[in-house]
Write a structure and sequence with these properties.
The chain has a single domain, classed as P-loop containing nucleotide triphosphate hydrolases (Rossmann fold), CATH 3.40.50.300. It is built from nine helices and five strands. Helix 1 crosses helix 8. The protein is globular and about 40 Å long.
């Protein structure tokens, strides 16, 4: 029997607004929420703080930790909202192996807007100098991923419109009525207008 839990992975490069959107979705849906940054080992954080891009060998153990958390939440009957860059299709494939249904919400926007947002952030270990590396690594959601229910949304839209679009997409899903569950006690906490999913990133 398929696990009824749903995982919304809010993805995109640094500065795309993942935390803001994930927190709003978690609050409206009542789902457990976690930040992928919380799963990074200190070695990864140290590299990024120094402006050193992460390599695949840095990311695989981190992604596995995230997948394990998603599966544990699903086993307990909880749907989740998670922020994760999920830049490559292979990374998304690993996350999609978690128990439950995994949908990706790609927050996409132009480099200038994202850079401006990063410049305005305070207290985050990811420096703006790593944005070009992230943009170069980013692989857009594929046609198959979009057909399976994942979304690509424009970050220039107001956050409330993005959140409304995601919730509307969930409501339109044939399984949406079966997947809503309360947030897990003690889960890591992170802080409708017409929106059309696109088939490629800018």
């Amino acid at each position: 029997m398929q696990n009824p839990a749903t995982h919304l992975v809010v993805m995109g490069v640094a500065g795309s607004g993942k935390s803001t959107i994930a927190a709003a979705l978690s609050q409206q849906l009542g789902w457990a929420c976690a930040e992928a940054d919380e799963f990074h080992p200190q070695s990864n954080i140290s590299k990024m703080t120094q402006g050193i891009p992460l390599q695949d060998e840095d990311r695989w153990p981190w992604l596995q930790e995230i997948q394990d958390w998603m599966t544990a939440q699903a086993a307990a009957g909880h749907s989740t909202v998670l922020t994760c860059s999920a830049l490559k299709q292979t990374y998304r494939h690993l996350l999609a192996e978690a128990e439950g249904r995994v949908l990706f919400v790609h927050l996409d926007g132009g480099a200038d807007l994202i850079s401006q947002r990063m410049q305005g952030r305070e207290g985050h270990f990811m420096p703006p100098t790593l944005l070009p590396s992230q943009l170069a690594t980013l692989e857009p959601l594929t046609g198959d991923e979009l057909a399976a229910g994942s979304l690509r949304l424009d970050i220039s839209l107001p956050p409330q419109e993005i959140v409304a679009a995601v919730i509307a997409a969930l409501a339109a899903s044939a399984t949406s009525a079966a997947v809503v569950s309360p947030a897990a006690p003690g889960a890591p906490a992170s802080p409708a207008a017409s929106v059309h999913p696109a088939t490629s990133a800018t």
